[in-house]
Amino acid sequence: MIAGLYRDGNSVLHRAQAGAKILAMVALGTGVFLIPDWPVVSLVLVSVIVLYRISGFGWATMTAQIKPMFWLLAIFFAVQLWLNDWQAGLLVITRIAAIVMFASLVTLTTKTSDMLASLERAMRPLKPLGVNPEKVSLAISMVLRFIPVIATVASEIRDAQRARGLDRSILAMIVPLIIRTLKMADDVADAIEARSFD
Amino acid sequence: MKTKDIVYIALFAALTAVLGLFPPITLPITGVPVTAQSLGPMLAGAILGARRGGLSIVLFLVLVALGLPLLSGGRGGFGVMVGVTGGFIFGWAISAFVIGLLIEKFWNRLNVVNAAVSIAFGGIVVLYAIGNAWVAVAADISYWQATVGAAPFLIGDAIKVAIATAACLAVRRSYPLISKSA
User: Fold this and answer.
1) Cβ contacts of residue A174 below 8 Å, gap of 6+?
2) Tens-place pLDDT, residues A102-115
3) ipTM summary value
4) Is B15 in CB contact (< 8 Å) with chain A?
5) Which of A167, B31, B164, B167 could join A162 in a cystine, given CB atoms 3.0 to 4.6 angstroms apart?
6) Where a domain ends, among A80, A98, A123?
7) Which CATH architecture has domain B3-174?
8) A178 and A151 in one domain?
9) Is some CB atom of chain A closer than 8 A to the CB atom of B175?
10) What residues of chain A lie within 8 A of the CB of B83, using their CB?
């Protein structure tokens, strides 16, 4: 089973409802765009940092969330500095940092299973529109089940193509991988139907 | 929707996740990283068609949103999705759908040219339109400036269009799944 990005803890945020946290995330994301004012947005960012501390996360966890986009933010700041002024640059980077860090915090403090439960609740009103929650749940569990299987198939194919000297060719890798995935899908569908799922 | 369709949708979502495990190739000179994962939406649309292909990417994105590290480099969760490149991630679903629509339309007379055009339109034109708009809003720059900034990534995407086209045609010969359209 694939481990989620959730980190165990017992803070206020860990105990809060997944749906409430997602709504807060949407509100924060909308808010920082409605108030294009760098001191306000910086204050929001500081609050998010405080929330990380309250949730029991250290600086390492915090910086890990923003590190992948560090250079992008640096470029954005430079572009704003060039086009406008430093205040505009600060607004852009603090805004992105606040949204991304809060969104990451929601993921860090919410178990995948709790997230799934609120997704199932959110899907209920969509039932008259033809969304079948049982089928969505089946599909989700199937993806999780088949990622390791397809990964194993991929490494088998890589070994086979290496023996033929084709390990540099992406196409020689991808076409057999697709065909074997489709064949597997047929077998799985037969197995599910044999158990009268529908 | 038949059970078989659900299985195809789920297995292509899983395939997209597996493509994210392949190590990225760094292009010479520009240093732009090219990941195999964005082949996923192209393949899903071109092989499963609009509805199933689009839904398989939606399913993949749902799993990422639930907090699973399925994006290349082991990333996932809401943080990446609302980040600067979020438009490109959400755009994958629409991209797969558009590719599927076009491939279905050309299905009975599919050749290298119209398959490549279909995949390039959905996988580059549509995807970049969404992704660049998102970047423009996030970085407070014009749409044109965002487009210029995204240009170095076109090389990798052109390579992926070529791979997806060849794969789509090869799979169509041995395992055709889109049959209905006129």
Assistant:
1) B39, B43, B163, B167
2) 999 999 999 999 99
3) 0.91
4) yes
5) A167
6) A123
7) Orthogonal Bundle (1.10)
8) yes
9) yes
10) 69, 96, 99-100, 103
